[in-house]
Design goal:
α1 crosses α8, α3 runs parallel beside α4 and α4 packs parallel to α5. The chain has about 260 residues and is an alpha/beta fold. The radius of gyration is 18 Å and the shape is globular. It has one domain: 3-Layer(aba) Sandwich (Rossmann fold), CATH 3.40.50.720. The chain contains 8 helices and 7 strands.
């Protein structure tokens, strides 16, 4: 698919070392954008940059750091402006999933989830939104939510709260950003096969595919394609929305025998 309005634009993607973040970065680069990839794991980050530099030697840069740290966010934005002179797209993709019994969940665990998933996204958008306002020619923000922000799942209360909050953030920020021609939307992926999910559960595709009408889990590129559409000129009138990319998982109610 050909996306208009991508070529020459500058994007920041956090958590871009692997999985969905990497897929978004690669697709943006294929469509002519310039990308700053953020990743907290130095080894993962360097391997990612090597892979992408082979294909796009002059269009991507790497910034290592914790996307939940406000000082790191300030440095990331400054680095991007130094590298490419502007910022057009921002995708706060970095996030952490922490499972835990509600009655045993610890304050430090709560702070960790909130710090990256919400605080990191909020202040990155605040900082880059100010830059886009000054540039005066619009921009795009894509927040990475989840179907756990739509439906309840066991032992994911804190995580689910953050993902639901990101959907509300997309709606609320329309008031602040739309007057400056900046759109803000969220994507809510369902079960997606990534390096992390496969490591957590070797038969991730087989187990979670049973819950999806198509019978298969999503791929990172499924989410990346949705993201590229929302960044493109074709989505200029879509604002404050959440696009669910889950193969129909949340659209149905399954009977117990469906899982046998």
């Amino acid at each position: 698919m050909i996306y208009t309005g991508i070529k020459g634009k500058v994007a920041i993607i956090t958590g871009a070392g692997m999985g969905i973040g990497y897929a978004i970065a690669e697709l943006l680069l294929k469509n002519g954008a310039r990308v700053v990839l953020n990743e907290v794991d130095e080894k993962v980050a360097e391997n990612t940059l090597i892979r992408l530099k082979k294909k796009f030697p002059d269009s991507c840069s790497l910034f290592i750091g914790d996307a939940g740290d406000v000082e790191v966010i300030d440095s990331l934005v400054h680095f991007t402006l130094e590298q490419y002179g502007r910022i057009d797209f921002v995708i706060p993709n970095a996030g952490i999933t922490l499972f835990g019994d509600f009655f045993k969940f610890k304050p430090q665990e709560f702070d960790k989830v909130i710090g990256l998933n919400l605080k990191g996204a909020f202040f990155l958008v605040q900082k880059t939104g100010e830059i886009m306002k000054k540039q005066g020619d619009g921009g795009r923000v894509i927040l990475m939510s989840s179907i756990t922000g739509i439906r309840g799942y066991p032992d994911l209360t804190a995580y689910s709260m953050t993902k639901a909050a990101l959907q509300m953030m997309a709606k609320s920020l329309v008031l602040a950003l739309a007057p400056h021609e900046i759109t803000v939307n969220a994507i809510a992926p369902g079960a997606t096969l990534t390096e992390r999910t496969k490591e957590e559960e070797p038969d991730y595709a087989g187990t979670w595919g049973k819950l999806i009408p198509r019978g298969i889990v999503g791929k990172p590129n499924d989410v990346a394609e949705a993201c590229l559409f929302l960044l493109s000129e074709g989505a200029a009138h879509i604002n404050g929305q959440t696009l669910v990319v889950d193969g129909g998982w949340t659209a149905i109610g399954r009977y117990p025998e469906d899982l046998e």
